[in-house]
Amino acid sequence: MQGEPMIDDGLGKTNEPIVRRVTVLNPPGLHARPASVLAARAREFQCDVELVLVDAGSGRASEIGTRVDAKSILDVIVLGAAQGAQLDVIATGADASEAAGAIEALFRSSFGME
Fold first, then answer.
1. Considering the entire predicted model, what is its pTM?
2. Partner of 85 at 20 to 30 A CA spacing, among 43, 63, 77, 78?
3. Whether 64 is catalytic
């Protein structure tokens, strides 16, 4: 079906992007420390991992639709995602499902900072 995220076979073996929508929960947003945690976790995977700003929430951020490399601390910081911002995590490659799930878990746990 067109427009829907790809659902893989559970083994992470797909070249189609795996998309997870996440919300920035921690009050300071994606500042240096969570950006560092996120980038380090994303670099553990072979697949490409990107973040796309869907909704800026209550803060000032990059333009809606801005896409950055989640493996780059600087890219994540420059995105400027504040608390309440919504992002799509887009993972593409051999271990995309595992990567998207791991990044989603970081957002749900506020990067372990609460």
1. 0.84
2. 43
3. no
Q: What pLDDT is stored for residue 60 in this prediction?
A: 74
**Which one is catalytic: 23, 31, 75, 106?**
31
Task: Please provide the CATH number assigned to the domain covering 29-112.
Answer: 3.30.1340.10
- Domain residues of the chain, as ranges? 29-112
Residue 6: both structure tokens together: 């790809």
Residues of the chain with pLDDT under 70: 1-14, 114
> Taking Cα atoms as reference points, which of 76, 65, 89, 81 lies closest to residue 29?
81
What's the DSSP call for residue 5? P
Task: Please report the sign of the dihedral spanned by the C-alpha atoms of residue 97, residue 99, residue 101, residue 103.
Answer: negative
